[in-house]
Amino acid sequence: MQCPKCQSTNIKRLRGYWEDLPAESPNRGRYAPPNEPTGQPLLALLAVAAGLFVAVTSGVLIGLGIAVAGLLWGAFMVKQQREYEAELAEYDGSTICLAKYHVF
User: Fold this and answer.
1) Which end of the chain has the smaller Cβ count within 10 Å, N or C?
2) pTM exceeds 0.70, yes or no
3) Distance CA 66, CA 90 (A)
4) Could you report how far apart the first and last alpha carbons of the chain are, in Å?
5) pLDDT digits (tens, 9 = 90+) for 91-102
6) DSSP H or E stretch at residue 88
């Protein structure tokens, strides 16, 4: 396999290259895998449950508002997770040219 830009055969999988870099390397942050989302899906589920509890026990509109907010929060976290998985798949399939540092 060759680099499509410079035709060098000195290439490596991007993840393997990143894992072999020393901790003090300036390229460690540049070629790092995407960051995993930090959301807690359990909190969104608890917000929905709390909203339903409030709707049943006291204020219907307030409770439904809390439940809808929890659902929207959960949907946003699902979207973030799917984007992360797509970015990670692209990263895992990437190759780096060690002659000119092209990523393809």
Assistant:
1) N
2) yes
3) 36
4) 12
5) 999 999 999 988
6) helix 60-92
